[in-house]
Amino acid sequence: MSEQKTAPGRQTYRRLLLAVVRFLKSPAGGKARWLLAALLLLMVGINGMNVANSYVGRYFMSSIESRDSGGFVRFAWLYVAVFAGSALVGVLFRFTEERLGLLWRDWLTRRVTSLYIDQRIYLNLTGEDAVSNPDQRMTEDVRQLTTSTLSFLLMILNGTMTVLSFSGVLWTISPKLFMVAVLYAVAGSALTILLGRPLIQLHFRQADCEANFRSELIHTRANADGIALSGKEADIRERLLSRIDGLVGNLRHIIAVNRNLSFFTSGYNYLIQLIPVLIVAPLFIRREVEFGVIGQSAMAFATLLGAFSLIITQFQAISSYASVISRLDEYVEATEKLAARRNVTRIGITHEAGHFEFKNVTFIFPTDAAPCSSRT
């Protein structure tokens, strides 16, 4: 496969969008739409709980600073209530997300399997039009596509709601702090893309390396008797070891890129805890804000920056997801080419008493100058 194919293009994402639309319009789409609506409603609840939690925490810490025992007890109970509500909504959100992901995977796996049989992809495992490791694409890649697409979609929607919810909170505390959060997230995202871009191609290769090694093991087990009789153990061992070399070598490259990426993201995340305190603490010292605002600003800053910084926090998962999209896109493209070029005449087989009758069969013998057509 060419290197250009390892990065998803516009056509790839159009196919992904088409797959989502087809799913929502399928017989399973009615249930899917209800589950998606429930997820959006729960997402609003989660963000509402987070905003409430920031204000409860603010007044709770301020009551401690002012030695207000009555306020301390009152806001402690509110804290417990908000935590309980957040836990309930969070569990229901996760459950609904998993059910929707399973529903999509079930539908897509059945669709891909039907294409595999109906378009006779199983007959094109070698040659120019071959699709490498179709079993991998129909199982692991479909699983990752459905779970990751849903997860990233919900993260983007949740991030949008979080930005809308906490931008106002952070702006009322300090407009300067809000602007710092935006600029910090933009700069961090740009550097993350620069450092982690090779991961997309490397994850694509790794999936093929893992699948190739498994295929060799399956081939060895299926031909165990022949290998033992022919004494080809040394050749098989060399083939297996070469697959391991490719697998491990590519994984070393992934680990090296992840190391460089982790150096940056670790420092980026540590500074998130310090920046709001450096900006808001002087306001408290000048008695312009109450003590609880420091804690609220730290929480709001971290939450808002987390929403702005999805590329930074999820880049490794995004790069793996991009490789999965490319692999499935290659599978779909090969299927479409085969369907467009082939007009397969199927063999007709009739079983009657004492004999079989074949239709549309042509026999070619090495010594004949021309093919010989036959019905039986």
Number of strands: 4
CATH-derived architecture:
Up-down Bundle
Strand order of the largest sheet: 1-2
Tell me about the biggest sheet? 2 strands, antiparallel
Number of helices: 11
How large, in whole angstroms, is the Cα Rg? 29 Å
CATH class: Mainly Alpha
Features:
376 residues, mainly alpha, two-stranded antiparallel ribbon, ABC transporter transmembrane region fold, single chain, two-stranded antiparallel sheet, disordered C terminus
Task: Describe how the helices and strands are arranged.
Layout: H1 10-25, H2 29-65, H3 69-118, H4 134-173, H5 175-196, H6 199-222, H7 224-230, H8 233-285, H9 292-308, H10 310-313, H11 315-341, E1 348-352, E2 355-359, E3 361-363, E4 372-374
Antiparallel strand pairs: 1-2, 3-4
Helix pairs in contact: 1-2, 2-3, 2-4, 2-9, 3-4, 4-5, 4-9, 4-11, 5-8, 5-9, 6-8, 6-11, 8-9
Explain the overall architecture.
This protein is mainly α and 376 residues long. It has one domain: ABC transporter type 1, transmembrane domain (ABC transporter transmembrane region fold). Helix content is 79%, strand content 4%. It has eleven helices and four strands. It has helices at residues 10-25, 29-65, 69-118, 134-173, 175-196, 199-222, 224-230, 233-285, 292-308, 310-313, 315-341, and strands spanning 348-352, 355-359, 361-363, 372-374. The strands form two sheets. It has a two-stranded antiparallel ribbon with strand order 1-2. A two-stranded antiparallel ribbon has the order 3-4. A hairpin with an 8-residue loop joins β3 and β4. The longest helix has 53 residues, at 233-285. It is elongated.
